Structures are given as C-alpha cells and as structure tokens.
Amino acid sequence: MLKRTLFFSSPYYLSLKDCQLVAQSKDQLTNKTIPVEDIGFIVLDHPQISFSMKLVEQLNANKVALVFCDSKHMPSSMLLNLESHSLQSELFRAQISASEPLKKNLWKQTIEAKIRNQAAHLEKQGHKAHELRAYAKSVKSGDLENREGLAARIYWSRLIGQGFFRDRYGDPPNHLLNYGYILLRSAVARALVGSGLLPTLGIHHHNKYNAFCLADDIMEPYRPFVDQLALAVYGDYPDELFLNKEMKARMLSLMAGDVWLDGTKRPLMVALSQTTASLGRCFNGENRKVVYPQFE
C-alpha cells in the first residue's frame, strides 16, 4: 500500500488516539485524524508544532520518517527507527565487512544507472543524449575515469542551459533541486534502515562528517526524477526566488510519483525499498545486482 506524505507548515498539536494521528490546530478550529499505518513521511515546517511522545513511539513502530525543518524552512533532521529489520545485526556485519571490489562494483552499477536515467530525462525533454548513452556503457569499476562528472556537465548544460551551474546557493531552479534532493535523501535513508542497513557506511561517499553516506550513494540514480519534478514546478513559478507552500507541496508529491522497476510501474517510495533490499542481498552474497529504476 502506498504510504502518505504529510506536510505541516502552521501551528499544530499532534497526538495519538486509537492508533490514529490526531492533528489539532492551535486555534482549535481544525481537527484531523489519519491512521498511523497509512503514513510514510511527515514533514514538520513550523516552530510552533508540538507532539506527544506516545505519537512518536507509534510513528517509530510503523517506520514513519519524521522530518524536521530548520528556521530557513529546509529539511534538516530526521527520526529513524534503528530496530526495523529482523536480520539487522547480520546485515550490519555483512555491510561492514564488504570488500573493496564489491563496493567498487556496486558504485559502477549505481553510476551506470544514474547516467542512463539522465540520458532518458534529456531525451524526454527533447535533447540529444548520445554521449551520455556512451558514457553509461563505459563506466569502469569504481568509476575511476569519472564518467559521472563528464555526464553531469553535458546533462545540466543541455537540460537548463549553458549558463546554469548546479550549486547549493546558485540561481533557480537550484532552490527546488536542493529541496527535492533533501527529501529524496531522507526517503533513501528511511528505506535503508527499513532494509536493515546502516545509512552511514557508504560504498563511495566516505566523509567522516556525513551520517548518511550510503543514502548519498544510493540516491544517485533517483536524482533525475527530482530534476523532472523540479523543472515542472519551476515552470509554474518562474519568478519565485524562494520556495512557497505550494511549491513545497508539489515537491512532496515526489514520494508518490511512479517509476519503472524491473518492467513494473510502482511508486517511488516502494521502489526505494526494493532497491535497498536488493543492496542488502548484495552485501550478504545472495545477489550481485542492485535493482535501480529506469527513467521513462
């Protein structure tokens, strides 16, 4: 079943009653209830939102990702269940002891999938992508020749224009891309934990200050889905330099968007769980291939 994504951007008190989340506005004019089992994500984007610990316990038991936004209204932290898989300790050991050749092979698969999806996105937008198709076929173990970087330069210049630079503090639509990538990162972290993996231990990213290195790795092939949505939202709000409530709500629809995985269409949130489960099977030796989505 597709889980719901909830976005709260005004003062609310969130509590639990009969296994349902009760959202009561601070002015007590609005009172809504949602079954906790139907929720996948909750994004809290207001300093006057409060909640009961009993609700947090139930959200945690149902593997709900609770995302908190900072004073700049950007997602900044997240609550994750650390005991969400029956074979967690076994998977932890397999992940920690993974060999360098295995991790380099997994990164090769990841970059191949990312570049293929970037090429498909370019073609869907009416641009040529033959160079990216060639790069995807020539990625070596560990991507030692940086096909990812070469593809990115072509991808962004054709997708948005020669003057565009992908930068956290750059011109629009960077603000939408930033927001979408942070949401995607939290979704990948949730899926990794749900599959019994440590999101901290990456196969390529190894920044000691980064608690989500593996999430940063595995999200790469999913980025073009964020790019597509961000461009669509930007087209409707070309003069907005800052994200408004409507733009954020549109970006949150990413989780329910359909992607193709192994020839079957399914919501991105579900696809992420299948990707991370396949990664777990690679770590414990059951399989050698990570299942990534195909951009259509």
Automatic annotation (TrEMBL):
Belongs to the CRISPR-associated endonuclease Cas1 family. The keyword DNA-binding applies. Signal peptide: none annotated. Mn(2+) binds at residues 148, 205, 220. Pfam families: Cas_Cas1. This is CRISPR-associated endonuclease Cas1. CRISPR (clustered regularly interspaced short palindromic repeat), is an adaptive immune system that provides protection against mobile genetic elements (viruses, transposable elements and conjugative plasmids). CRISPR clusters contain spacers, sequences complementary to antecedent mobile elements, and target invading nucleic acids. CRISPR clusters are transcribed and processed into CRISPR RNA (crRNA). Acts as a dsDNA endonuclease. Involved in the integration of spacer DNA into the CRISPR cassette. Coiled coil: none annotated. HAMAP family: Cas1. InterPro entries: Cas1, CRISPR-assoc_Cas1, CRISPR-assoc_Cas1_C, CRISPR-assoc_Cas1_NMENI. The keyword Plastid does not apply. The gene is cas1. Its cofactor is Mg(2+); Mn(2+). One of its GO terms (biological process) is maintenance of CRISPR repeat elements. Homodimer, forms a heterotetramer with a Cas2 homodimer. Keywords: Antiviral defense, DNA-binding, Endonuclease, Hydrolase, Magnesium, Manganese, Metal-binding, Nuclease. Its EC number is 3.1.-.-. The lineage of its organism: Bacteria, Pseudomonadati, Bacteroidota, Bacteroidia, Marinilabiliales. GO terms for molecular function: DNA binding; DNA endonuclease activity; hydrolase activity; metal ion binding. It is an enzyme of class 3 (hydrolase).
